[in-house]
């Protein structure tokens, strides 16, 4: 008998080594490599001992006549969840849902399964972390105990597939979580890379053959990435991330990958005593409690997928007593902030080398698009000069390294959302590159110097007869003021 060759697999990224190492060279993780015995696999052994198989069918592409029809979907009963999935669950699709512990993943899935079961669909909720009684207690707390959801506490994939195959296939099956599942074809502990990959593959095969929509709940690492091998994210049809701050009462469901809908789409929920409640107008939620007269605040008109979203950018620029001033960012890319600060110093005539800079996106939302450059620059200049920005103005635009304000996409949708919330003016790039009637009066900017000059013109000079701040405090001698 041939000797079984043992391998060492990184539990964070799935890299394989022939011997143990303290640090993974692929993800630079320490103490993440564990020894695993590779499974024999279904294709092992000589061909004569394997059972014969029937050949698959080939379907010609030219046999499709007429217009292409959209894949049949099953609504979840939650509008924000349907928005993220692209209109509902596609039959036979597999969704990987990740999020921090305690963020509300199980609560959201319990509410979605109860809503679908109430409409007459067969829904199965498989928990590998809780007992059936614990799941029922959470359902009673949410007021969903009377809904016909099938519950089970099982971790063996073969038993789960065999049980779900009896009778009519479920319309939705929830696996909470994939890290607790194990399959008999792999000789390793649950949660390892090999077990997660093999269990996910078996569940995906079940979804494709029966037409059941499957949601796999995945754990996340300290960096916020879904734990387990990256190959699982490529195997599934959609990847969603449930985000939120424990200090805030709202949660964001973000689509990272979706084969049947738009990517980077978000759904906004509010955590209440009765579970997660949908937020139909998230812009009003993020702008609630805004201080209109405070310097250093700017309203950014952003886009999350196909949804326009207005959020408040807060900046604080204060003189620093440290040799290396601090740069603290919450909700934005720190590298992007460094670029904006460099552009302001080089092309805006702003001295920021001796100041601490603190930037925050109000409400805990995380922004990734570069269209927030102009709003961040306006908040920084406003905080440094002490001039409050107009409360009825919104900002959006990308900054180039030359100081030019560049156009961004979907400008009409941003302007329409600002007009709906009562804003009267928009500070935008010149030549947005999109045709259409302007829904809101705009002030077009060509260069970052125009923005700095406009804000500094309203900066306070004296308070109580004393000089409060001058141009020399924050600008170089040849500044544009």
From TrEMBL:
Gene3D superfamilies: 3.30.230.10, P-loop containing nucleotide triphosphate hydrolases
Lineage: Bacteria, Pseudomonadati, Pseudomonadota, Alphaproteobacteria, Hyphomicrobiales
PANTHER family assigned to the protein according to its UniProt record, in alphabetical order: DNA REPAIR PROTEIN RADA, DNA REPAIR PROTEIN RADA-LIKE PROTEIN
Alphabetically ordered keywords of this record: ATP-binding, DNA damage, DNA repair, DNA-binding, Hydrolase, Metal-binding, Methyltransferase, Nucleotide-binding, Stress response, Transferase, Zinc, Zinc-finger
Cross-referenced Pfam families: AAA_25, ChlI, Zn_ribbon_LapB
Source organism: Methylorubrum populi (strain ATCC BAA-705 / NCIMB 13946 / BJ001)
InterPro entries, sorted: AAA+_ATPase, DNA_repair_RadA, P-loop_NTPase, RecA_ATP-bd, Ribosomal_Su5_D2-typ_SF, Ribsml_uS5_D2-typ_fold_subgr, Rubredoxin_2
NCBIfam families in the cross-refs: sms
Compositionally biased intervals (Basic and acidic residues): 465-474
GO CC annotation terms, alphabetical: cytosol
Known function: DNA-dependent ATPase involved in processing of recombination intermediates, plays a role in repairing DNA breaks. Stimulates the branch migration of RecA-mediated strand transfer reactions, allowing the 3' invading strand to extend heteroduplex DNA faster. Binds ssDNA in the presence of ADP but not other nucleotides, has ATPase activity that is stimulated by ssDNA and various branched DNA structures, but inhibited by SSB. Does not have RecA's homology-searching function.
GO molecular function: ATP binding; ATP-dependent DNA damage sensor activity; damaged DNA binding; hydrolase activity; methyltransferase activity; zinc ion binding
Sequence similarity: Belongs to the RecA family. RadA subfamily.
Name of the protein this chain belongs to: DNA repair protein RadA
Motif RadA KNRFG motif mapped to chain: 257-261
Binding site for ATP: 99-106
């Amino acid at each position: 008998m041939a000797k079984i060759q043992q391998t060492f697999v990184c539990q964070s990224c799935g890299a394989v080594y022939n011997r143990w190492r303290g640090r993974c060279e692929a993800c630079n993780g320490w103490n993440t490599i564990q020894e695993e015995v590779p499974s024999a696999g279904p294709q092992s052994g000589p061909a004569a001992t394997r059972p014969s198989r029937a050949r698959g069918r080939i379907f010609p592409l030219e046999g499709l006549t007429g217009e292409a029809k959209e894949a049949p979907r099953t609504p979840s009963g939650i509008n924000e969840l349907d928005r993220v999935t692209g209109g509902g669950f596609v039959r036979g699709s597999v969704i990987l849902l990740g999020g921090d512990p305690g963020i509300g993943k199980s609560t959201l899935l319990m509410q979605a399964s109860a809503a679908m079961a109430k409409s007459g669909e067969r829904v199965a909720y498989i928990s590998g972390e809780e007992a059936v009684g614990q799941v029922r207690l959470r359902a009673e707390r949410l007021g969903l105990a009377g809904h016909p959801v099938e519950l089970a506490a099982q971790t063996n994939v073969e038993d789960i597939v065999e049980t779900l195959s009896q009778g009519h296939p479920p319309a939705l099956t929830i696996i909470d979580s994939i890290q607790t599942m194990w399959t008999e074809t792999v000789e390793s502990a649950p949660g390892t890379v090999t077990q997660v990959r093999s269990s996910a593959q078996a569940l995906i095969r079940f979804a494709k053959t029966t037409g059941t929509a499957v949601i796999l709940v995945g754990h996340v690492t300290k960096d916020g990435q879904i734990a387990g091998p990256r190959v699982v994210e490529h195997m599934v049809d959609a990847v969603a991330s449930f985000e939120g701050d424990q200090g805030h009462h709202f949660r964001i469901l973000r689509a990272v990958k979706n084969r049947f809908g738009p990517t980077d789409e978000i759904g906004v929920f509010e955590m209440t005593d009765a579970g997660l409640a949908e937020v139909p107008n998230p812009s009003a939620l993020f702008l609630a409690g805004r201080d209109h007269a405070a310097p250093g605040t700017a309203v950014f008109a952003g886009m999350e997928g196909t949804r326009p979203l207005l959020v408040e950018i807060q900046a604080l620029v204060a003189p620093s007593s440290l040799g290396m001033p601090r740069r603290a960012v919450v909700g934005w890319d720190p590298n992007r902030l460094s670029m904006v600060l460099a552009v302001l110093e080089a092309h805006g005539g702003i001295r920021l080398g001796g100041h601490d800079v603190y930037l925050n996106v109000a409400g805990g939302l995380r922004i990734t698009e570069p269209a927030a450059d102009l709003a961040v620059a306006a908040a920084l200049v406003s905080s440094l000069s002490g001039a409050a920005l107009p409360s009825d103005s919104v900002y959006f635009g990308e900054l180039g390294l030359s100081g030019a304000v560049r156009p961004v996409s979907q400008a009409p949708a941003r302007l329409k959302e600002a007009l709906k919330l009562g804003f009267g003016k928009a500070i935008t790039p010149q030549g947005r590159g999109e045709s259409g009637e302007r829904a809101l009066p705009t002030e077009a900017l060509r260069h970052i110097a125009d923005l700095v000059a406009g804000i500094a013109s309203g900066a306070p000079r004296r308070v109580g007869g004393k000089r409060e701040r001058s141009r020399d405090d924050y600008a170089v001698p040849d500044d544009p003021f």
